[in-house]
């Protein structure tokens, strides 16, 4: 594991520290997809104390489920079951694009999100990007990490390299609408949901209006 000294140079966020770390660079990881697909502009605007990259096959050990648990139930199935799910998702090529933000100080995940590319018969065999599972560690909220995750996922969705989705959509609670509006989305239509009986036994998420990227 390399030792990294982190010296923030400039940022709009309040994160600021300098320390030794066990940060694992991209070339030492088995990544879900090529990091070159992530828009360079988003990487350039990140605070230097964090790193944004595709999910890796060892991110279970970096607190992936713990970060997702700020969003909803994320019970721990154990590493081998987690890895099986990772491989099952990766075996559908050009479909799932899960990303994470890592603290360089701790090598732990502080934010996560995914865009899923849906192929359609309409709109000239068009594609739609579905943003899912956006979560930022409670201690790191308010530092523009959520914004960077959404910018990266929207950039991926619209990228010609992965097929160029004609729109990007997501569901969110009423209280998160202002956040997504700041990310360039606007409210459209409504979401409908029917939970399977076994899922209905769990506490239900709040009402979730549908938000779409401006076209
Ligand atoms: C919602 C969430 C992803 C936002 O991430 P974040 O890193 O805290 O947000 P950012 O710092 O990137 O915010 C970007 C802008 O949106 C604003 N914003 C963020 N959340 C907001 C909210 N709930 N209401 C109003 N504005 C909000 C910020 O103030 C900031 O505005 P500014 O540019 O004027 O300073 C994060 O709070 C979170 O993980 N919440 C719990 C899980 C969740 O609800 N996920 C979303 C599921 S749809």
Structure in words:
With 215 residues, the protein is α+β, with helices and mostly antiparallel strands. It has a domain at 26-170: Aminopeptidase (3-Layer(aba) Sandwich), CATH 3.40.630.30. Helix content is 24%, strand content 21%. Strands 1-2-3-4-5-7-6 form a 7-stranded mixed β-sheet. The chain is globular and about 45 Å long. Bound molecules: coenzyme A. Residues 70-71, 134-136, 141-147, 172, 175-176, 178-179, 182 line the site of coenzyme A. Belongs to the acetyltransferase family. GNA1 subfamily. Pfam families: Acetyltransf_1 (PF00583). This is Glucosamine 6-phosphate N-acetyltransferase.
Compact summary:
This protein has 215 residues and is an alpha+beta fold.
Tags for this model:
single chain; 215 residues; alpha+beta; 7-stranded mixed β-sheet; globular; acyltransferase; glucosamine 6-phosphate N-acetyltransferase activity; EC 2.3.1.4; Glucosamine 6-phosphate N-acetyltransferase; GNAT_dom
């Amino acid at each position: 594991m390399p030792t990294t000294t982190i010296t923030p140079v400039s940022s709009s966020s309040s994160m600021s520290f300098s320390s030794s770390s066990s940060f694992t660079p991209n070339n030492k990881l088995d990544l879900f997809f090529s990091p070159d697909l992530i828009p360079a502009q988003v990487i350039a605007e990140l605070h230097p104390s964090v790193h944004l990259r595709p999910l890796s096959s060892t991110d279970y050990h970096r607190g992936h489920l713990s970060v997702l648990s700020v969003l909803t139930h994320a019970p721990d199935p154990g590493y081998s079951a987690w890895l099986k799910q990772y491989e099952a998702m990766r075996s559908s090529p050009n479909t799932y694009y899960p990303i994470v933000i890592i603290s360089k100080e701790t090598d732990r995940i502080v934010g996560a999100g995914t865009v899923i590319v849906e192929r359609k018969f309409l709109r000239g065999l068009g594609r739609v990007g579905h943003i899912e599972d956006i979560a930022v560690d409670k201690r790191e909220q308010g530092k523009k990490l959520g914004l960077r995750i959404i910018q990266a996922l929207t950039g991926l969705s619209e990228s010609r390299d992965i097929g160029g989705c004609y729109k990007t959509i997501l569901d969110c609670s009423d209280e998160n609408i202002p956040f997504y509006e700041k990310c360039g989305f606007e409210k459209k239509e409504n979401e409908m949901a029917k939970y399977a009986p076994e899922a209905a036994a769990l506490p239900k998420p709040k009402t979730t209006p549908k938000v779409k990227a401006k076209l």
